[in-house]
Write a structure and sequence with these properties.
Length: 322
């Protein structure tokens, strides 16, 4: 059974890592016939890197749905991984892609969504709430929510977002987050999300996706609920130097995101919306069952995550012994 996979937004971190894993990991590479990456910017470094690994890179121009249909048909795509782009018009783009998949006869679609979006209030967390609309759009495009299209991989707050404050970590030994003193959440490593996606995209059954996966709503969080102080303690253990949690205001978090990152404004707003959800106490849960069931492994613990990124976070000079 052929498996010709197309992944959208491959110049972004999520789409890129899923594609890279499929192209380089011996568990998955033999199980796919081809991989096409839809890129809003085909000249981006990530697009070029994937092309060097064997992916076919196709330009995706929003508003040109006919071109997307043609690309899906030309590559005999039977499986689409729909990764919403980090743009303010992500909902419109997702609708266009879902409709294109339907017109091209793509049997299997995996949507990467956002955990917690159903707890978000439209007035308070509009960027997060968008994912509720996005899920509805993608499912309704097929017309049958019980079909293979109805797989939603709902990932929580990416732990990599903590690296946006690496400047404070290196220069001041601080982990600044606007989440309050006692509220908790369970950040998940992006690599764990990519691993689940790779298993799902290459899983095969008589109806397309593996019957153990198709139709599933897979909610993914990290394996440990953490307050800001507990995250700082994990970072301290991994780095061998004391890191301290700094409970900053939302205004300060917004200023830092603006000055230290080149993220799209809508992505900054999404991150701030999630922090707002944490402060409201709506992220006080973990969901690792799907990860265990799909991969047979254990998700990345906070200590391990910080060890993996020690080079980016380690203070430039020793601040205080832990």
């Amino acid at each position: 059974m052929a498996r010709n996979i197309c992944i959208t937004s491959i110049e972004g971190q999520t789409g890129f890592l899923i594609a890279e894993l499929l192209l380089t990991d011996d568990r998955f590479q033999p199980r796919i016939d081809s991989l096409t990456g839809l890129a809003l910017d085909p000249s981006s470094p990530k697009a070029k890197e994937l092309q060097a690994l064997g992916a076919v890179i196709a330009a995706h121009t929003p508003g040109r749905a006919r071109d997307v249909v043609a690309t899906l048909q030309k590559t005999a795509c039977d499986t689409l991984c729909l990764v919403p782009p980090a743009r303010s018009d992500k909902l419109d783009i997702a609708l266009e892609l879902a409709e294109a998949a339907k017109k091209a006869g793509v049997a299997n679609v995996l949507l990467i969504s956002a955990a917690g979006c159903d707890y978000a209030e439209r007035a308070a967390q509009p960027r997060l709430r968008e994912f509720v609309d996005l899920e509805s759009v993608v499912l309704s495009a097929k017309g049958d929510p019980e079909s293979a299209l109805g797989i939603r991989l709902v990932a929580g707050f990416y732990a990599e977002n903590l690296l946006l404050y690496s400047e404070q970590a290196r220069n001041e030994g601080l982990l600044p987050l606007p989440i309050g003193e006692n509220h908790k959440f369970a950040p998940i490593a992006l690599g764990d999300v990519s691993l689940v996606a790779a298993h799902v995209l290459t899983g095969k059954g008589p109806h397309g996706f593996d019957d153990r996966h198709r139709g599933q709503l897979m909610v993914l969080t990290g394996p440990m609920l953490c307050s800001g102080k507990e995250l700082a303690e994990s970072a301290s253990k991994a780095l061998g130097q004391t890191m301290e949690f700094d409970n900053i205001s939302e205004r300060e978090a917004k200023r830092v995101l603006k000055s230290q990152t080149d993220l799209d404004d809508s992505e900054k707003e999404y991150i701030l919306d999630y922090y707002s959800l944490v402060r409201e106490g709506k992220t006080n849960y973990i969901s690792t069952t799907a990860f265990h069931d799909v991969t047979g492994q254990h998700p990345t613990e906070p200590d391990e995550f910080f060890r993996n990124y020690a080079g980016e976070l380690r203070p430039k000079k020793k601040l205080r012994s832990s």
